Structures are given as structure tokens and as C-alpha cells.
Amino acid sequence: RSYQNYDIVDPAAQSNSLLHVIARLATMREVYNYAANSSFENATIGNSWLASGGTLTKEADALLGTSCGQLANASGSTQRIYQTITFTGTKKLNVGETWSFAAYLKAAAAAASNIRLSEWDAAAVNASTTAGYSLTGGEGWTKVEVSHTITDTTSDRLRVEIDVVTATTVKADCVMLIQSNRAVQWFVLNDNDGAVGIESADDADYNSFDTCGFDCDDVDIIHPWSLLEK
Fold it and tell me: How far apart are CA 111 and CA 71, in angstroms?
């Protein structure tokens, strides 16, 4: 990085302020969301999300944006919506890493089931972690989250799942899959689309936020001229 054309301190133009730029190298946190179509806004919901039974639709009842996803389960067993994120390109999975999956859920009537984050290889699931959710119905959007630590060296994909029990309709929005030991109070939209419910981790979208603020004044420094002989 080169700073020769920066101001020492410039609160009004912080991208050109040496104090702000250098400080944010340490204080700015980047958050990557690896879940594609994470707000269900894209035209074809089935590109990034699949349903194991039930009816998956795009609905105009969103927490953010204009759309959310909905799974209506009228069958005789638990059904789910899910997405698989592959780590076969530049971004890889490593044993000991912890990942967190979070989603906001909503239901008009009582609904209780699980969300799940699991690690897979090309053949089968290697390990998974679940977290329960319980909606009384009508209470609005509720955040549910689960974290999972990678255990198998052959795992090269993650799957996020939202289960829905019989005779229940559940809506989902603002889905996040991040590399962290817990979910964040922050939403990053990943508007990329997968194909048949599968997306590459290399397509993750990111944003950033400050972990501390700045309250400072302008500083003007006048440099004297000097004549240097050859």
C-alpha cells in the first residue's frame, strides 16, 4: 500500500485519511456469506435451493428486500429445504474450522423442528450439527443459528438445511453461512445463483463493518520548503 497522496486526518473524506485507512486495517471486519440467493430474491428459487418433499415457493413477505422462501409440508414426514456449497475451487475446508449457519424463520401457526449444518464429501455426509427452533406462530421473524466444526479430511462441501414438520408452513429469509464460531448480527446479501441447489464457495459475497468508531478533527500540517544541492 502506498500512502504518499493521503491526508493525515480527514473525517469528511475518510477513504483519503491516513489515520482512518491504517486503523481500519486492524478494526474493519469482513464478513463473507457463502449461501447463494441468501435472501430468496432471485427469479428462480430452484437454482440455489431444493426441497426434499413439500412445496418450495418464493413469497412476497420478506424480512429484507421483497421476497422470502417458503416450504409448505403437507406430507406424512419431516421435509426440508437445503443448499450445498462446494469447496473444490480456491476456497477449501479444513479440519478444525468452525462454520455457522443462521436463518430468520417465520410461521403463521405453531411450528417446531430443526436447522442443520453438515459436512459432506462427494459420496455422503460425514458429520452434522443441528439446532432446534420453536415458533408459536404470528410472532414475526425469529433468528435461528447453528455452528459446526469440520471433523473429516475428505469433506469438501457444506449443506445447510431447514426442516419443516408435517402440516406446517415455514418461511425463511436472510440466510447466512459464514466461517466463524458464531453467527453475527449482520446480514450480507449473496445474490449469486447456484445450479440445481449447488453453489461454489468461490462465489461468496462479502461486506465489511467497523468494530470501533472514529471521532477526530482535521489536522493540517504545513511542510516548509528546502533547497537540496546536487
Answer: 12
Distance CA 117, CA 33 (A): 14
Task: Give the Cα separation of 49 and 37 in Å (integer).
Answer: 8
> What residues have CB less than 8 Å from 206, skipping those under 6 apart?
30, 31, 32, 33, 188
Pairing verdict, β 168-178 and 157-164: unpaired
Average pLDDT, the chain: 93
Q: Supply the pTM of this predicted model.
A: 0.84
Looking at residue 219, its pLDDT comes to 75
Which of 14-18, 31-35, 222-226 holds the top average pLDDT? 31-35
> Which residue is it, cell 462465489?
203
> How many CA atoms are closer than 13 Å to the CA of 223, on its beta-carbon side?
5
